[in-house]
Design a protein that fits this description.
Helix content: 40-55%
Order of helices and strands: HHEHHEHEHEHEHEEEHHHEEHEEH
Structural class: alpha/beta
Number of domains: 2
Largest sheet: 7 strands, mixed
CATH class of the largest domain: Alpha Beta
Length: about 400
Amino acid sequence: MRLSRRIEGITGGGSDGWELFYRARALKAAGEEVLELTVGEHDWTTPRPILDAMHAAALAGHTGYAVVPGLTELRQAVAARLAERTGVATGVENVLITPGGQAGLFAAHMAVCDPGDRALHLDPYYATYPGTIRAAGATPVAVETRPDDGFQPRAADLDAAAQGARALLVNTPNNPTGAVYSRATLDGVAEAARTHDLWLISDEVYDTQVWEGTHLSPRALPGMAERTLVVGSLSKSHAMTGSRLGWVVGPEEAIARMIDLATVTTYGVPTFIQQAAVTALGQPALEREGAEVFRRRRDLAARTLDGCEGLRLLPAQGAMYVMLDIRPTGLSGEAFAHALLDAHRIAVMPGESFGQAAAGHLRVALTVADDRLEAALETLARFAAALAAEAA
């Protein structure tokens, strides 16, 4: 029996970008000791006050069907959060609670794209973006950004790609590059959206992890609230990756239609998790404490890799990763990552997992204790220096 073209085409007939990660996990399953610096998974558990609230809600019997759009109390908390951060009036009618930010990205594209529509996204990109767009029936179109520009998208490139497109997906602070888009960059994004009548889907799951500059949501720019869908999550801000708690914020009509979609797909998020999310959003100190860990490790990486031969650290303005340019070694990011795993059992993500604009780079997740991270980076630096010497 033949499967649908839609599901067979999610990866576009190529790689899904996760081969190195799968290989590292297989080595660990076989008993090998592997230091994983691959995925954005915290090295601490969800904070105790959130777990206590989750536990109490479950014991109190909140384990049945959830209200599909989300608890009113939680939607109010998310609305207040977005109103404060964007200056745009926001109510519960503008909020849908989703099972994580990934479900929000899918719902947003389903809401604004018809089958065959061109949906733009920036390159480098989070590895799921093209597949999410294909799963929604649209055609992903990558708009390349450049290391020399700090991976900030150029307005002219956006304008050139936007003709006939339906949507544009942006992510700031950015995964994998760590770029925080400037006001000038976002003005260019907004101008392209207004000029070409695009829906803008803004992935802001790292909005609490900003090390340089200021996070600005494009929803806050003139004429953008009515055409912007903001995707958020508690995964990165509150170490709740496994709880699958996210949201989409946007115009009332769009949210109403996405509630229809949720009714026939996810059917809501467990109520005891939603009640824990209310607790999480009510304790902003928790996200500040978590963010400070990654700020410290970003600075540690900069000190450790300063002046190293064979690689260059790209300044990380936000998020929980650093990008390394390893082109002086003569290897692709993919070849370097596999060689590093072979030689030292250290797993990092090759830049090619995130698009061709990141070829010859690595993404390193800052997700182990400081001493282990420093030792791993020192090993990586020596490895790169030796390869660069051979290449020279």
